[in-house]
Amino acid sequence: MQLAGLIVAVLAAVLHGYIFVMESLTWTSPRTRAVFGLTAEEAEATRMLAFNQGFYNLFLGIVTVVGVVIALTGDTAVGRALVFAGVGSMLAAAVVLLASSPEKARAAVTQGALPLVAIVLLVAGAVL
């Protein structure tokens, strides 16, 4: 279960890396605007906010991947702590998105599903 949880955590990190690309690098492109349902004017007006938010997603992914590497190469306790910090923050952000913008439920579920599964698997692996 631990290994499965770490694998799902890496998948969550990859997804958040992709979100970083969309928010920080391609925010005003037609494809990214379509994903987020934005007009060109809305995308331009929110470009700097999205740029900053994208880096939050990148950093959560980095913390998670670093934790997975540490967990797999030696210090399991430190690695798991970092993984939980990363995926826990991803899940918390998804909950905040859902609570603050219920119309974005699909995005919140997309953002939070992998972190939730990773947490469940890691906890179950630690208990069983």
Walk me through this protein's architecture.
The chain has one domain. It is elongated and about 50 Å long. With 128 residues, it is an all-alpha fold. It is built from six helices and no strands. The model has no long low-confidence stretch (mean pLDDT 96).
Topology:
Blueprint: H1 2-25, H2 30-36, H3 40-45, H4 47-73, H5 76-100, H6 105-127
Helix pairs in contact: 1-4, 1-5, 1-6, 4-5, 5-6
Task: Label this structure with key terms.
transmembrane helix; 6 helices; membrane; mainly alpha; DUF1304; transmembrane; 128 residues
Offer a concise description of the structure.
88% of the residues lie in helices and 0% in strands. With 128 residues, it is mainly alpha-helical.
Q: Helix- and strand-based class?
A: mainly alpha
DSSP helix fraction? over 70%
What are the secondary-structure elements, in order, as H or E? HHHHHH
Strand content: under 5%
**Counted beta strands:** 0
Unreliable stretches (pLDDT < 50, length at least 5) are none
